[in-house]
Amino acid sequence: MGVSEDYFPDEPKRPDMKTKCPGPATIAKLEELSKVFDTKAAFFVTDFYNSLGNYICDADGNKMLDAYCQISSIALGYNNPELLKATRTREMAVALTNRPALACFPSTDYYEILKDGLLSVAPEGLDRVCTAHTGSDANEMAFKAAFLYQATKKRAGKPFTEEDKTSVMNNQTPGASDMVILSFTEGFHGRLFGSLSATHSKPIHKLDIPAFQWPVAPFPTLKYPLEGFEKENRAEEERCLKDLESILTTFPHQIAAAIIEPVQSEGGDNHASPFFFQGVRSLTKKYGVLLIVDEVQCGGGGSGKMWLHQHYGISPDIMTFSKKMQNAGFFYHDPLLAGDRPYRQFNTWCGDPSKALIAKAIIHEIKDKHLLNEVNKTAAYLYAKMENVRQKHLKLMLNLRGKDRGFFVAFDLPTVELRDKFLYTCRQKGVNMGGCGDKGVRLRPTLVFQPKHVDILVKTIDEAFDQLD
Amino acid sequence: MSFLFVVNLKLMSTYADRYFPDEPTGPKVVTETIPGPKGKEVIKSLSDVFDTRCVFFPTDYEKSYGNYIVDADNNVLLDTYCQVASIGLGYNNPNLIKVAKSDKMIRALTDRPALSNFPGLDYEEMQRDILKYAPKGQKYVWNGLSGADANELALKAVFFNYQSTKRGYDSPFTEEEERSCMENLPPGNPELAVLSFKRAFHGRLFATASLTRSKPLHKMDMPSFHWPTGEFPAYKYPLEENEDQNKKEDARCLAIVEDRFKNWHCPIAALIIEPIQSEGGDNHADAAFFQGLRDITLKYGAKLIIDEVQTGCGGTGIMWDHERYNITPPPDLVTFSKKMQSSGYFFHDPELIPNLPYRQFNTWSGDPKNILMCGAIMKEINEKGLLPSLRETGLYFYGKLEELQNEYPKLISNLRGKGKGCFMAFDISSPEKRAKFLAEMRINGVNIGDCGSLGVRLRPGLTFNKKHVDVFIPIMKTVLSSL
């Protein structure tokens, strides 16, 4: 038996569509909900009580195979019995009822929770953690860490000057920093003001919000399949590295850190090779720029490794996480990244022990059930099948990508309209999927997605292409 | 009905007596220092992996109960700081434990939704449970994940609204806007400002840290938006004896704000203010000042954001502190977090919801786990009549503190917060004396926090009552006499 049968003996065998999706019950519910909540982005109203394993149930009782999973944030399937167990413990009730201000009054067991949970999967060399509340929050705190670090180094042990102290209260230099964060074209790092300034995915994400003038380096635009275009792709990556170096050497302000996703997800599932990432790492090192790897979407095991950047053999200074971990934050090593004195990187909650407990439970399952092996096995099967579908629909299914990157598989359609139609068609056939970039479709199933789910997914994709043809 | 209810309240014991029957009758300090030896060990191991330089003491949350917090060494302290003003109903409140163990909570934790894309069947009810106790005049709520997050989301709502008002709510973006925003440039990313006040605190992310003006350390070395500040009135206390002077102070501060609106180099889209500046020193202002600000925002077409992160959810004896100022028309946005255990902003103008999806959006868009807890907390406060009794306790507490202030005029001054529940503060004569005061209070069994450069702030839970005051006051008296 596979791991999904172990967890979910009653998981549906196949999708079960009773109505269109969105169906009448969803539409009625959304109308009510829209009186108190902005529902314009709603796919459908979800019945989480009746969702199970890899199947999500909507308000109309439609059961869909879920390859989107709350935007890549459900690791172990819906109503996972081990997670249910973790949420029913005494320690969880205590954590929920008495949420601490962690930096001032950490719970006596917070060390064990971190050590046994999040830190047990920290990438090599990063042995400290700063916990946060969301992916954006994690990235912004990582930016802060970088700014504090670089400013402290620059100050070389000297105290803040009077000018520092007065100018900062007016949001002006030298107290307020003119350092910057470098990010990449089509990157997505969140939607608060600092993280949004580093986001370059789509205009709709950025319009009308004041932004910092921070530099953007080109992310390679590779041709797929990667093995068919090695030479062109290498040239493209070399071009991007050259541009990066030129920004690093000529940008008028000090670059505190560069932030990059191992696979640009919202921006369209754009991949680059280990060569490129190693190049970014060595250039940042060469110019004294910290490297932040944003594993918010990529991390948590979906790529077949705990963190996707581990496919590239690089070691960042900071790595941020959220989503599948259910707990957000960043790993780091250098204590100076926590600021040279207390209350610099600080906020009321500094995380949430209930989330750290969930993260711990998820991590235990990943290890105990060898879920990364499962992902790798199933993913090889998935990719081969997707390749067959591609051969059949060469005109519609473009740029299949994500080979050897676990479930981090995506492809494009020729136009945004066709892509949206494709997603809608798949949903009517009982498979829930998400888009990315302008024309992309991304697969973001759970870690307990098995070959039998692959069969349904691939068949549905194939049929949907048939229908579009 | 209401008559019976009042009688019942009088006849029955206090909330703390009812729900924390085994609450300690006083603090118990068993080690020579706090943290004691065990606490120090916990800090030592934790410091290998987590920044512990701000730790007061590691806490045993399983043993903490009601208004008493228990540390790793089993020291039992009366808590008047309550997780930086974020525990409203006491530790291990049995009614909240029920919520924590409920089916809904288990579901919320196990299957956390991306709320904007896949709202759950029970989400509408959760939203309505919060909206039931929304500030007067507010109709909607958008959820965030922390106080800073709530304030930044509110700013985003304001900026979307400002530009779409200019453009026409449903008008399309221009090509130039779409192109320029990808390079972080206007017109796509316009230069717009938000006015905040000196000594204000609104959070520590990049936009919120730009608004925050409490202390250099909160802001130092972060890139910052060049946004204007107004001056928050600095009143003379006691208020009753300084009315004329304080009125002049209001007028002076309002003139500065108006001047900023007239002369700032870019449009000011909003003004954000705390009803009581908390981190910045527990600074109070008068209704006339708040109304003056409202009038200026109306005159210049800016939104008024009230930041109730620390003041909200009952801490000042009413649910939302700004309601006591009867600001007319009500503020455009009210942000919340802390005691609510969920975060976000209330608003009433539907045009503060952007015209298109995926503008005000993020993966989780809140957390049903927090929202459930928040609904339960507000229900508990209102149905168990916590606020009337808190107001009573507050007056009693104030009277006792006033006596101490009269007794030690050289040590403590500017006692403030009368009539605002237990949301009180006073100043100690110097930063050194204050540090000593806080440390001595702790070792004598009271956990207490500071604010501003000289302030000591009281932030007990809403379950704090006269018997706790009677524990607090003698300890404070002993400490003052030792200083």
Automatic annotation (TrEMBL), chain A:
Transmembrane segments: none annotated. The keyword Transferase applies. Keywords: Aminotransferase, Pyridoxal phosphate, Transferase. It is an enzyme of class 2 (transferase). It comes from the Eukaryota. Pfam families: Aminotran_3. GO terms for biological process: gamma-aminobutyric acid catabolic process. It catalyses: 4-aminobutanoate + 2-oxoglutarate = succinate semialdehyde + L-glutamate. Belongs to the class-III pyridoxal-phosphate-dependent aminotransferase family. This is 4-aminobutyrate aminotransferase. It comes from Eeniella nana.
TrEMBL record, chain B:
Gene3D superfamilies: Aspartate Aminotransferase, domain 1, Type I PLP-dependent aspartate aminotransferase-like (Major domain). The keyword Signal applies. GO terms for cellular component: mitochondrion. It comes from the Eukaryota. Keywords: Aminotransferase, Pyridoxal phosphate, Signal, Transferase. GO terms for biological process: gamma-aminobutyric acid catabolic process. It catalyses: 4-aminobutanoate + 2-oxoglutarate = succinate semialdehyde + L-glutamate. CDD domains: OAT_like. It is an enzyme of class 2 (transferase). Residues 1-16 form the signal peptide. Its EC number is 2.6.1.19. Its cofactor is pyridoxal 5'-phosphate. One of its GO terms (molecular function) is pyridoxal phosphate binding. Belongs to the class-III pyridoxal-phosphate-dependent aminotransferase family. This is 4-aminobutyrate aminotransferase.
